Amino acid sequence: MKKELLIFFSLLFFVKSFSQKTDSSHIPITVFYTYDEALLTLQPNKTDTLIHQFQEYLLFHTSFMAHLGNGITATYSLMPDFSQQEPFWLLPLQPYLLPVEHRYFDTHKPFTHIRLVSNTNRTYNEEGIKLIHTQNINAHWNIAFEGLSHKNIGRIPRQDTRFHYLNGNSYYHHHHYHLLANYTFSVLKTYETGGVSNLPFLIDSLFPAENAAVNLIGASNLYNVQHAWARQWISFGNLNDSVEKISPVWKPFFVIQSDYTRAKKIFTDNLDSISILNHDLVYDSLYYRQWLNKVGFAFAKDMIKGSGISIFGTSSSQKTYGGRSLSKQSFGTSVEAFYRTTSFSSLLLYDYWFSGFLSNNQKININLQKKVKLIQHPCFLNASLSSMQKTQDIFFNEINIKYLLNETTYPLLHVSSINAGINDSITNASIQVQISSVKNAIVFNDTLFFPRLISSTFTIFGVTIHKSFRVKNIVLDNSLMLQTCQNKEIPIPLLSGFHTLYFQQALFKKVLKFQIGASVFYHTLYESPCYNPVFGTFFYTYSNKLGNYPFVDVFMNFSLKRARFFIKVEHLNYQWQKANYCLIQDYPVEPRTFKFGIAWNFYD
Questions:
Q1: Predicted pLDDT at 576
Q2: Which parts of the chain register pLDDT below 50?
Q3: What does the DSSP 8-state code read for residue 324?
């Protein structure tokens, strides 16, 4: 990580040397954008620089995720999604990488954000630092860098995780040329415990968590993930300098999009550890590299805010290692048709692969967003329809070859879904309904950890509701998720909830703002998955039920001009009632812990 930090500060010194001496943007504030792939446009985005939920810096509860109980570790979404494109062993890490990808800025002045978090235990300590710096080189070009380093040593023996990432992005918009680009480099090292073998003892207040017995004593996982993405288009006419304006003239564009992912997972074990696959496994490695390119022409008013149509030729180069080295090429075509006004946006996307490893893969997406006036203020209605069939994850077959000496040809995965909802940002209310139909899903659902095909078609129904209530200075934020799955081989909790109740007040002529309150996360009883550190994934045994246990935190947030502070006690109700304190079977959440953090925003 020393090398990455040296690069980061070198880049920071470089951009500061050429920093904007005067305001060089058409807007008077610093704006955070997210590139919305559902509508192919930039959307202003709320960021983690706000005081609201500042204490929830890892976003487990707000995103309805289960985790292994110690810092940045593998995550399991309580909302199943079978449309993911990444290898199964990378999916548990996506929540840490997705928030920084496709994030762009436009700023009136150079902006720097620094955040520090820690706890009060020197032995079982947590330390984290996050840096964001962005500035406009000129009125058309913004660059930004973001870095994070996070260490967490838990009270359970061998709970030790180290996560680092460095992200850089660039946003350029000028006559004839437009560019969105980002690159992320991340490293995660975690010492694997294999779970706690004497879990019932943890409910005894006289039994320290430090005395827990773990299943693995010499195992670790090392992840290295690199991701680069760029979308650029060249106009044969004049392109608007500002993303806020829409050209009235249709004109041709030459469009190039590249998406590069390189990931490696190295698992090491000690022969004294319990064997995971009943063989003498000491070292195992998984490798994945994919380079996806789209090159084509578009005819549009504006590629960010206007309407148009794009036609691409696509290519995919994939290299994998899961016991044997494989290289595969695929070719296809893609069409994008988009229509945007100030009150309505829509996108039709169609991908088809006609040769190579991805042959006969296809995907169609229709996304709609409409601005309407409801109860005297604007709301957004959204709807989407998607259908896809895709080749199964190649690593499923590689596992069968390596450990069962049996090559299996899995049928294409079919996923269709309908999603509709309404969002009211004024009253902080939203409701989203989703219905998904899945055929030929693959899961790990036995103690041997080998993939199993579910050939029948099943349906998943889910409703997510967010609503905030405010009475003077008292605020209650509510997030509820209700869902059911037709197939019992995919266990999910019927109800999950995250609620935050707090009192807020501004003091000293509104210079000091503070919040004091409590939050609770829970889900109903369901057959929780177990975790396999060798493959870095989750599997079902259908014999372990978790749930009906609330995880309670209390906190205080402060905001003083450009600085923010928080203090909180996590898992306040630890050992208040008999429970195994797990979100994932055999992986207990940390005992009661006192944490604090501070963040500064600088405009210079």
A1: 85
A2: 1, 239, 241-243, 272-282
A3: S
Q: Contact 581/574 with Cβ under 8 angstroms?
A: yes
Q: What span, in angstroms and rounded, lies between the C-alpha atoms of 356 and 333? A: 13
H, E, C per residue of 148-159:
EEEEEECCCCCC
Closest CA to 105 of 135, 67, 82: 135
Report helix, strand or coil for 218.
coil
CA trace torsion 61, 67, 69, 70 (10° rounding): -100
Query: Strands (DSSP E) along 392-450, which ranges?
Result: 413-424, 429-444
DSSP secondary structure string for all residues of 566-590: EEEEESTTTTSS----EEETTEEPP
Contact 436, 417 (CB under 8 A): yes
Strands 377-390 and 413-424: antiparallel
Domain extent listing, the chain: 368-472+485-491
CA distances from 514 to 57, 136, 209, 234, 561 (A): 17, 32, 34, 48, 12
The whole-number pLDDT of residue 509 equals 81
Place of tokens 């490696």: 264
User: What pTM, to 2 d.p., does this model score?
Assistant: 0.90
The number of angstroms, rounded, from the C-alpha of 239 to the middle of its chain's C-alpha atoms is 33
User: What is the separation, in whole angstroms, between the first and last Cα of the chain?
Assistant: 28
Q: What is the pLDDT of residue 272?
A: 46
Q: How far apart are CA 329 and CA 313, in angstroms?
A: 14
What is the residue whose two structure tokens read 């999910």? 492
Amino acid 114: pLDDT: 93
- The amino acid sitting at 417 is S
